[in-house]
Design goal:
about 80% helix, EamA_dom, Carboxylate/amino acid/amine transporter, single chain, EmrE-like, membrane
Length: about 300
């Protein structure tokens, strides 16, 4: 059942927007790592592996969550699998197809929220779904057509969105038995394991070349600060948002990643930013902001009615 927005809800909204902002510029250090001699699959293993290693000591302080968490622990685990599958989709299919298929995720999230959480499918949520799909189609459809899954990478992109929506639902319904920090550790550790498996498979298939030890050493010098300042905080924000919000709402907040990625790529790498982006990106932003604006309005109305 939907409820009026609380202070924690609004913090969760800001966390979701912050996560989308961070993941939107995620391509920049990833590209620098690749230019340093580490191919994409191994770069993703590095991007998840380093924060996973840094977060391992927290397991001792969170041990009670692991003792009593049970099924609630699956939320962060599925989130980690989803993140790694999304990374695999970027490797095994066109980037635009991977993005389109993953960001069908708000639809799965709203449906799961409707079935398992009792949240209503309101007019605003249908409107957000419509605006998001139209915006993504305007930007990407000319390059990829209708994104029906047609290869392993496409399926990774589609399934990753489903897994993420399911993970968000489990995090939200965990009953407070597992803290967001525990889900975050699970997210990074599982993502690192799956990303390493993907990199090893790609190497075995001859798709990618394993990096030299010297290349990894050069990258780690500057990558550790990036991990501490960008990846770890954004990972926590990624997990904190689903602790308070409907999975579909979380999906639309994360769609700001598309906007930030398109704008930052146009500024820093000279990638295309034309009429399609000028039309599609505001539609995506509108889809992501409808629910937070309504939450704020409902919260203020509840305060006014409470003081009346």
């Amino acid at each position: 059942m939907d409820r009026a927005a609380t202070g924690s809800d609004r913090i969760a909204v800001l966390a979701g927007l912050f996560a989308g902002l961070c993941w939107g510029v995620y391509w920049l250090p990833l590209r620098i790592v690749e230019q340093g001699g580490v191919e994409a699959a191994w770069a993703m293993a590095l991007f998840t592996g380093v924060p996973a290693i840094l977060s391992l000591p927290a397991i001792w302080f969170l041990r009670l969550d692991y003792a009593r968490g049970g099924r609630a622990l699956l939320g962060g685990i599925l989130g980690g699998v989803a993140f790694a599958l999304y990374a695999a989709s970027l490797l095994y299919t066109e980037v635009v197809r991977a993005i389109l298929l993953f960001y069908l995720m708000p639809i799965w999230g709203f449906l799961l929220g409707w079935v398992f959480l009792g949240d209503r499918m309101t007019w605003s949520r249908w409107l957000a779904i419509g605006l998001g799909i139209v915006g993504m189609t305007v930007i990407f459809a000319q390059d990829t057509g209708i994104p029906w899954p047609r290869n392993a990478g496409d399926w990774c992109g589609l399934v990753s969105g489903m897994f993420w929506a399911l993970g968000c639902t489990l995090i939200l319904t965990g009953g407070g038995r597992v803290r967001a920090a525990t889900h975050t550790v699970n997210f990074f550790v599982v993502a690192a394991i799956v990303s390493l498996v993907v990199a090893l498979m790609g190497t075995a298939q001859g798709r990618v070349v394993p990096p030299e030890a010297g290349d990894i050493g050069k990258v780690l010098i500057w990558f550790l600060p990036i991990t501490i300042l960008l990846i770890l905080p954004s990972g926590f924000a990624t997990i904190f948002a689903p602790t308070r919000l409907n999975p579909g709402v979380v999906g639309f907040l994360f769609m700001t990643e598309v906007v930030v990625a398109a704008v930052s790529a146009a500024i820093w790498s000279g990638e295309r930013f034309g009429i399609r982006e000028m039309i599609g990106l505001p539609l995506i932003m509108s889809a992501g902001l409808i629910e937070p604006v309504l939450m704020t309005w409902r919260g203020r109305r509840a305060q006014v009615e409470g003081t009346a």
